[in-house]
Amino acid sequence: MDNRNSSQRMRRRRRKKKPFRRILRIALVLTALFFISAVAYGGFLAYKVKTAADDSYQELNREKSDLRETKVELGEDPVNILLMGVESYKDSPGHSDALILLSVNPKTKETVMLSIPRDTRTYLPIIDRKDKIGHSYAYGKKGNKEEATIESVEALLDVPIDYYVRTNFTGFQEIVDEVGGITVDVPFKFSQVSIESKTIYFKKGPMEMNGIEALTYAQMRKQDIRGDFGRQERQQQVIQAIADEALSIKSFAKAGNIIEALGDNVHTNITLREMFAFRNFYKELTQGSIDRLNIKGEDAYIDNVYYYVPYDESIEEISNELKRVLEIKDTESDTNLNNEESSNQGYQTE
Fold first, then answer.
1. Containing H/E element for 56?
2. Which of 88, 179, 308, 349 could form a disulfide with 119 if both were Cys (CB 3.0 to 4.6 A apart)?
3. Structure confidence by residue, pLDDT tens digits, 4-34
4. What predicted TM-score, i.e. pTM, was given to this entire model?
């Protein structure tokens, strides 16, 4: 009798334990599935990011600038990054509508931003004569247009360009939209017709902007009493706002969407690894003030064509400041400068 009761009690205990064990098994299976799904999704995102980055990546036809003794790396060495905003329409060779040079020193945490007016008259190596710097992109051959612009900027400032980022209007808008828009401190009230033929109204003070609004804000020039200088400052505002938003995003999925949005609209020689390395110390860089430089010069008409002619003193001053940030000695660029002077012999400034 006692044995029968004992056996019944053991069976009851087993029945009581089975539901718990079943739940435990389900939990373990769900956890395993979730982990596998997370790994798979993470792998998919990583693949998507890498694919998009590979599509945007475009090397230069050189290992380093001729103004460098040794190759440098973003995130480790002081470097120059040239941002090109290209205006390209159907059946048009394209022009550099916006040129912004970023000099970044990760050691001293210094950042200098220089806008180069598109109408700046300077020597263009690609055609071996002086013309508007914004035309250098058009003169470059297919697959070499960015390089033609880079060489012109190097000839103007006598500093190396290590990296570049080239985007068109579509890429610009998509990036702003993908980061969720940007906030910019508008200096004065104005309205401007966008490339979509819609009038956009800008109010003075902080204003949230989507892609088309940010593009229109950066492009406006005629209503700014400072002309191209005013537009340059607004372009710098927008570039910094985009960088702040993009590099502060912690979601890998969101980062993937941003990089994917670049697609064929953006070309750069910055690798994916270098992008993430730059992201790691960007916050440290922005804790200090970004020094904004402007090229001083004068308006001039030569053969009935408008140019912005920079003052030699201004170019020399800016070049020296950039070299200081980049920790470049003058001897590194003496050879290239002498070559440029030789190619310009016999030229007279009008």
1. helix 2-56
2. 308
3. 555 555 555 555 555 656 656 655 655 555 5
4. 0.73
pLDDT tens digits, one per residue of 288-324: 567 889 899 999 999 999 999 999 999 999 999 999 9
All residues at 6 or more sequence positions from 253 whose CB lies less than 8 Å from its CB, including other chains: 45
End-to-end CA distance of the chain: 121
The answer to whether the CB of 194 falls within 8 A of the CB of 173 is: no
Q: How buried is residue 236: exposed, middle or buried, by Cβ count under 10 Å (0-12/13-18/19+)?
A: buried
Tokens 């229109």, located at residue: 216
Longest dimension (CA), the chain: 122
Structure tokens at 173: 């808008």
Q: Is 260 helix (H, G, I), strand (E, B) or coil?
A: helix
Q: Which of 167, 175, 178 is nearest to 137 (CA)?
A: 167
**CB of 115 within 8 A of CB of 227?**
no
Tokens encoding 285 = 């860089």
Distance CA 188, CA 120 (A): 26
Residue indicated by tokens 């140019």: 307
Task: Please state whether beta strands 291-294 and 110-116 pair in parallel, antiparallel, or not at all (unpaired).
Answer: parallel
Residue with tokens 């970023």: 102
